[in-house]
Amino acid sequence: QVQLVESGGGLVQPGGSLRLSCTVSGVTLHYYAIGWFRQAPGKEREVVSCISKDDIATYFEDSVKGRFTLSSDNARNTLYLQMNSLKPEDTAVYYCNAAGTHWGQGTQVTVSS
User: Fold this and answer.
1) Which of 53, 57, 80, 84 is deepest in the core (most CB within 10 A)?
2) Distance from C-alpha of 12 to C-alpha of 3, rounded to nearest angstrom
3) What span, in angstroms and rounded, lies between the C-alpha atoms of 18 and 54?
4) How far apart (Å, rounded) are the C-alpha atoms in residues 111 and 14?
5) Does residue 48 contact residue 64 with C-beta atoms inside 8 Å?
6) pLDDT tens across 49-98, in order?
7) For residue 109, which of 58, 39, 45, 60 has the smallest C-alpha distance?
8) 85 contacts: CB under 8 Å, gap ≥ 6
9) 71 - beta bridge partners?
10) Cα–Cα distance for residue pair 14/98, rounded to 1 Å
């Protein structure tokens, strides 16, 4: 059974940084395409960044390009989303997703002064 557990969210001031973690169990990290989505209040869930199966290609949503990066630790079976230069509009619940079907429980990111 595939399980995803996110951590690392919190409250940060504009311009600050956070690193989100998604630890995967039940399957090797890059067996599926895997990535991050977010959902702000009153808005639909949107893709933020993802990496293809076998760690070949990455995608970043336009508004986060140059600010967010992906990395992984295969020994820990964990995907990281490093978020820099955070803006209030980045405020959302961030979800990890694998294979388009497996979801974590989400972690809240709030960017506010």
Assistant:
1) 80
2) 27
3) 26
4) 6
5) yes
6) 999 998 888 999 999 999 999 999 999 999 999 999 999 999 999 999 99
7) 39
8) 15, 17, 67
9) 80
10) 29
Return the half-sphere exposure (C-beta side, CA atoms, 13 A cut-off) of residue 56. 6
Measuring CA to CA, which residue among 33, 46, 30, 60 is closest to residue 95?
46
Rounded-to-integer distance, Cα 74 and Cα 14, Å: 31
How long a stretch of residues is the chain?
Answer: 113
Phi-psi label, residue 30: left if phi above 0, alpha if psi -120 to 50, beta otherwise? alpha
Structure tokens at 72: 């992984």
DSSP state of 85: S
What does the pLDDT look like over 28-53, one tens digit per residue? Answer: 888 899 999 999 999 999 999 999 99
The span from the CA of 18 to the CA of 9, in Å, is 7
β-strand partners of 69: 82
The DSSP bridge partners found for residue 60 are 49
